[in-house]
Write a structure and sequence with these properties.
Cathepsin D, subunit A, domain 1, 128 residues, globular, 37% strand, 3 helices
Length: 128
């Protein structure tokens, strides 16, 4: 278990994880059917180019848990970005003045990919 800081961003539609963090976690990845073009906050193209892979992480927050997809990309100094899927599922209380998430800590759990293939397929079907 390791503590990380994640950026909370309501301006985009997906969760992201940096390649560096993904590699440290030692978890599997899935290839996207179609690569996704990604741009940085300043509208420049991401230096890693298109997103080609994603991984699944179990997100726990305030007594609730949900398997969520995280797209692998370059995030500069950030390790993870929690975006709309997290906000929609958990509807957290946020103190925007202080820049703090209220109601507890977000926990992300990873498990070796080969053990979760069935769960991943079910989650992918739910996303369709």
């Amino acid at each position: 278990m390791a503590k990380q800081t994640a950026l909370l961003d309501s301006g985009a539609t997906e969760n992201f994880i940096s390649f560096r963090t993904w590699k440290q976690l030692g978890i599997g990845q899935q290839e996207l059917n179609e690569p996704i073009m990604v741009h940085n906050i300043d509208s420049t193209e991401n230096r890693k180019g298109k997103i080609t892979h994603y991984c699944w992480l179990r997100v726990l927050y305030n007594g609730k848990q949900k398997l969520q997809r995280f797209f692998l990309t370059s995030l500069g100094k950030d390790r993870m970005i929690l975006r709309y899927p997290f906000l929609q599922e958990f509807n957290p209380q946020i103190d925007w003045t202080e820049g703090e998430l209220k109601g507890g800590t977000v926990v992300l759990q990873s498990t070796k990919f080969r053990y979760l293939k069935r769960v991943f397929r079910q989650a992918e079907e739910a996303l369709k």
